[in-house]
């Protein structure tokens, strides 16, 4: 609480007006008793004595009956002024200027002088002047020069005394108010400190509970390896899952300047660095850590397949999610690598591919036989079929060919997954490839009511590649675009040069694909939600095969789409001779 607030009102713990009047009442009572002792007082005027008593009683009632706490403190000087008038009457009745009762005047005088405000100095001096002038006004004959001098000179002295007393009281009051303000502030600080301490105790208990929970969760993560490093790749976090996966305890790793790249295959780090166009090295160096965190340093999480090397030398295929470690100020202080053992998942994938390949091979033989006999039935001149029978036979042939294409796609994807599918690199002219695909798709486009537009340059666009596989890739894109474009829409197939690359783009005005699903389009058997909602036929292998073909030619597949607007898929192929990802495999069976 400030000093001004203490000075602006009467404090609740300050003496009441009645208590301030008590010393004056005591002195007046003693003086009143002395007036009844014969010979003590030089004069005895009952009228003045009675009047003085009545006035003092009035001052007493005034101090008791008026609610001074609710009235501004400046009005409180009315009580000592009334008491001063009572003492003046007593003084007149007991001898005037020679009365010994006058000494009691100091009590109300000091009271008035100590009240806050400079005006009380004048009020106290004026009250003394009136009291000293009273006997002169009542009894003119008894007035002497000494009385006149006292009546006019004494108030000046009292004025000086009142000024001194008022200043001392003012300073004492300021100091008292400051002390109370400091005490109140100290009390408030103590309460705040106590609240803070209580909060700290509560937060400490919560923190301990959270730490126990985090530690329990941390110890429960045994199937995933969690490794934390600083900015240079030195390991400072090693969970039980890392201990289980890599065969080293926390004590064997932390504090020994072990780096995370020590648990990676050097060849994989080098391949990754080559992909990043970094300088090729044959030994592990500090730069190899960039192969793990280059994407994370750019501000993105990175999920990639790696191979961990255990302490016993055993290789563990893992999928690692790399993310940055951020401190409380938002600064990157290291990296976190969460690895999942993919041994079983890859074994399941291998078995699935073997199963798909086996089933596909087993299906192709009876399908080929079925198609052969259907052709014999159609071409049998000795027992010609009726028109209705030929119609039924045509339905069977179309479905058998459709099933055969599906089997071929399954075979091709199985070969892609195993890294063994045939590709024959020769000179390929893309204009003819694109033209052949468009011409083959025109009947289907006309039946679906979709405009099919081809845009190719006048000059030839030659690349090194497999003409059959490139045609298969373009066919897949065109057929997909037609399937996903409603009647009245359009599909544009364009070919252009872009620097040292040739770009084949297929753009449609179809139903589009949600942005969140674009990254999954090249996965086997994945179908966009817009395809399933609109009942578009397909099994989700077309883009998988297309991406595999483009990748094998050293190219790239770019996909852009907006739901309800359309889709654009581009094949970007290098014009110079590519380094095939998958070479021709002797004896491998080519899918149709």
Short description:
The protein is of the alpha+beta class and 592 residues long.
Helix share bin: 40-55%
Strand order of the largest sheet: 2-1-5-4-3
Shape: rod-shaped
Structural class: alpha+beta
What is the first-to-last residue Cα distance? Answer: 94 Å
Low-confidence stretches: 1-10, 278-286, 577-592
Number of helices: 17
Mean pLDDT across every amino acid position? 78
Q: Strand share of the residues?
A: 5-15%
**Which sheet architecture does the biggest sheet show?**
5 strands, antiparallel
H/E series: HHHHHHHEEHHHHEEEHHEHEEHEEHHEE
The beta-strand count equals 12
Radius of gyration: 54 Å
Write a structural description.
This protein is α+β, with helices and mostly antiparallel strands and 592 residues long. It contains 17 helices and twelve strands. The protein has helices at residues 3-7, 17-34, 46-65, 78-93, 106-114, 119-138, 145-220, 240-246, 250-253, 266-275, 290-297, 343-378, 387-418, 430-448, 467-483, 529-533, 542-552, and strands at 224-230, 235-238, 302-309, 315-326, 332-341, 426-429, 451-455, 462-465, 490-498, 501-508, 556-562, 566-574. Strands 2-1-5-4-3 form a five-stranded antiparallel sheet. Helix 3 runs antiparallel to helix 4 and helix 5 (106-114) packs across helix 7. The longest helix is centred in the first third of the chain and has 76 residues, at 145-220. The two termini are 94 Å apart. Mean pLDDT is 78; it is low at 1-10, 278-286 and 577-592.
Task: List key phrases describing it.
592 residues; alpha+beta; five-stranded antiparallel beta sheet; 17 helices
């Amino acid at each position: 609480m400030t000093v001004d607030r203490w000075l602006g009102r009467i404090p609740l713990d300050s003496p009441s007006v009645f208590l301030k009047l008590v010393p004056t009442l005591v002195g007046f009572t003693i003086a009143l008793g002395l007036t009844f002792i014969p010979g003590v007082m030089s004069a005895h005027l009952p009228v003045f004595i009675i009047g003085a008593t009545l006035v003092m009683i009035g001052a007493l009632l005034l101090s008791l009956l008026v609610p001074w706490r609710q009235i501004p403190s400046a009005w409180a000087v009315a009580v000592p002024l009334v008491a001063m008038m009572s003492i003046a009457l007593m003084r007149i009745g007991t001898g005037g200027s020679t009365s010994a009762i006058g000494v009691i005047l100091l009590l109300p005088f000091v009271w008035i002088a100590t009240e806050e405000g400079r005006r009380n100095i004048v009020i106290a001096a004026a009250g003394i002047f009136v009291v000293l002038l009273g006997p002169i006004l009542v009894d003119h004959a008894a007035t002497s020069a000494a009385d006149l001098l006292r009546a006019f000179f004494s108030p000046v002295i009292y004025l000086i005394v009142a000024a001194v007393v008022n200043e001392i009281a003012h300073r004492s009051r300021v100091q008292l108010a400051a002390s109370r303000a400091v005490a109140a502030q100290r009390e408030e600080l103590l309460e705040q400190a106590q609240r803070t301490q209580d909060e700290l105790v509560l937060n400490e208990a919560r923190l301990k509970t959270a730490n126990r929970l985090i530690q329990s969760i941390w110890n429960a993560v045994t199937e995933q390896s969690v490794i934390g490093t600083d900015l240079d790749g030195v390991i400072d976090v090693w969970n039980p899952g890392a201990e289980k996966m890599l065969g080293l305890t926390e004590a064997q790793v932390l504090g020994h300047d072990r780096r995370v790249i020590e648990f990676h295959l050097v060849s994989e780090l080098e391949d990754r660095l080559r992909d990043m166009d970094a300088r090729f090295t044959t030994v592990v160096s500090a730069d190899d850590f960039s192969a793990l965190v280059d994407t994370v340093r750019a501000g993105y999480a990175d999920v990639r397949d790696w191979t961990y090397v255990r302490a016993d030398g055993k290789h563990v295929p893992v999928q690692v999610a790399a993310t940055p470690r951020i401190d409380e100020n938002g600064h990157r202080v290291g990296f976190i690598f969460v690895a999942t053992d993919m041994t079983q998942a890859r074994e399941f994938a291998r078995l699935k591919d073997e199963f798909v390949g086996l089933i596909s091979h087993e299906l192709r033989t009876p399908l080929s036989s079925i198609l052969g006999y259907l052709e014999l039935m159609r071409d049998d001149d000795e027992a010609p079929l009726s028109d209705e029978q030929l119609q039924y036979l045509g339905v069977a042939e179309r479905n058998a060919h459709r099933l055969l294409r599906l089997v071929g796609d399954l075979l091709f994807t199985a070969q892609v997954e195993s890294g063994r599918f045939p590709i024959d690199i020769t000179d390929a002219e893309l204009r003819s490839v694109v033209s052949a695909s468009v011409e083959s798709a025109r009947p289907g486009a006309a039946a679906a009511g979709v405009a099919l537009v081809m845009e190719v340059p006048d000059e030839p666009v030659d690349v090194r590649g497999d003409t059959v596989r490139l045609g298969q890739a373009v066919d897949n894109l065109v057929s997909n675009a037609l399937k996903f474009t409603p009647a009245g829409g359009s599909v544009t197939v364009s070919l252009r040069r872009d620097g040292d690359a040739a770009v084949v783009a297929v753009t449609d005005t179809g139903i589009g694909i949600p942005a969140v699903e674009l990254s999954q389009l090249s996965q086997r058997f994945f179908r966009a939600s817009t395809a399933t909602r609109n009942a578009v036929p397909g099994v989700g292998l077309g883009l998988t095969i297309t991406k595999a073909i483009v990748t094998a030619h050293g190219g790239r597949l770019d996909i852009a789409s907006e739901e309800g607007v359309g889709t654009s898929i581009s094949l970007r192929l290098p014009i110079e001779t590519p380094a095939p990802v998958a070479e021709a495999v002797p004896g491998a069976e080519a899918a149709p």
